[in-house]
Description:
Layout (H helix, E strand, L loop, with lengths): L7 H17 L11 H10 L10 E5 L7 H7 L4 E5 L3 H14 L4 E4 L11 E7 L4 H8 L3 E11 L3 H14 L4 E7 L8 E7 L3 H8 L10
Parallel strand pairs: 1-2, 1-4, 2-3, 4-5
Antiparallel strand pairs: 5-7, 6-7
Helix pairs in contact: 2-3, 5-6
Amino acid sequence: MQVFGSALPAAIRYADLLVGAGVDRGLIGPRESGRIWERHLLNCAVVAEGIAPGASVCDVGSGAGLPGLALALARPDLSVLLVEPLERRAEFLQEAVDTLGLDQVRVSRSRAEDLGPIATEVVTARAVAPLGKLAGWCLPLLRPGGTLLALKGTRAPDELLAAEPVLRRLGASAWRIAQMGLDVLEHPTTVVVVTAGTAAAGAAGRTGAGTARGRR
């Protein structure tokens, strides 16, 4: 499978964990077992095409490790931090990291807003919160010019439109919707891509005087 390359055996082990312990612990619905690859693993892993080589990635609200663990498997060059506040989910994530031998992945049992300014290059999130609220949690974690990749569904255009005032206030410099995995998936992954502005722009946004302009 082209997405995972030499990490395919590890990806298969991860899929087994999801449909086994993941279902048993309520992290994945039992109905998802039959579509774990198309709907979950591949849907998340293709987002790697939006991440530069060797980047640091913070996966907020990681849950069962989607998209964070899928990205780490597809791109072993990435340094990935999985952020999950719930104990049972964080425990599953650590077990998965240990089982899969992912030395470049760390797990933090924490809320995104409690992490502080970690200046990561990329933040990812899937099914965590509406875009406006999500941006408030995630953009402060990014270094200037960093990227938020929010995996969304068919309502992405509406969410983005509603979130634009928040993105301006937070000093984001650009935002758009991208379709990823066009050559892999029958239904590509819809991702809202938000670029963090400079530190000065972010400070201006927090005081309500931001001048950053976004684009769809």
